[in-house]
Amino acid sequence: MTDPILTVDGVDSGYGEVQVLDDLSLTLGEGEIACLVGPNGAGKSTVLKTVFGMLEPWTGSVRLGDREIGGMAPEDIVRIGVGYVPQTENVFGSLTIDENLRMGGVARDGGLDEVVAELYDRFPILDDKRTANAKTLSGGQRQVLAFARALVMEPDVLLIDEPSAGLAPNTAKEVFDDVETVNDLGTSILMVEQNAREGLGISDRGFVLDQGTVKFEGEADSLLDDPEVSRLYLGGESRR
């Protein structure tokens, strides 16, 4: 693994008095895609919300590089280099593509026009539709817009929750290609994905969560080839 850019260490977290994460620890290496998989209710999305400041860790540490960010407000976390793409309601349907992108840069100190222009170059489908309202986009196109809007702040780490949710297989494949494109831009990605095989298939490393803690971790290919992981969490035989 490369040097860690994001470290979650011994975190307990949850909603109100309901604990979801139990002494959870994981790391994201610089330049990596890491995928969180596991059954419904395992705490996958809670990990992202805790890292992004939507939930405060009850115990433990969340660090971006050497900086403690656990408990910081999301707007401050965005400014220091972490972006977040939620599973739902991740674009403003009544705004145009261009307005959505510019909303993503409200905390920038400058250079907004330049970074938006670069994103249009990277994602031509957005350039073609820049004056259209986001609500007119297909599900896959909305995900591309959500990725691009999060990239306006040029984050070091992007948190992505269920990018393929509700998409047809062919569209999901295109969205996974776009996740890899974002990673190729130099952004480290921590991704939750219910389609475990496809998510691990584009990832460098993976973490299998169950009951709020990490049960298995390792290189993504190794997890895909592990008979026990496959039987318990991937719905069938390993690739061996």
Strand order of the largest sheet: 6-7-8-3-9-10
Radius of gyration: 17 Å
Provide the residue-averaged pLDDT: 94
CATH architecture of the domain at 4-89 and 155-233: 3-Layer(aba) Sandwich
Ranges where pLDDT stays below 50 over 5 or more residues in a row are none
User: How far apart are the first and last residues' alpha carbons, in Å?
Assistant: 24 Å
> Overall 3D geometry?
globular
Fraction of helical residues: 25-40%
CATH superfamily caption of the domain at 4-89 and 155-233: P-loop containing nucleotide triphosphate hydrolases
Number of strands: 10
Walk me through what this model shows.
- The protein has 10 helices and 10 strands.
- The protein has 240 residues and is α/β, with parallel strands linked by helices.
- The chain has a domain of 165 residues: Rossmann fold.
- Strands 6-7-8-3-9-10 form a 6-stranded mixed beta sheet, sandwiched between helices.
- α3 runs parallel beside α6.
Brief descriptors of the model:
alpha/beta; Rossmann fold; six-stranded mixed β-sheet; globular; ABC_transporter-like_ATP-bd; ATP hydrolysis activity
Task: Give a brief rundown of this model.
The chain has 10 helices and 10 strands. With 240 residues, it is an alpha/beta fold.
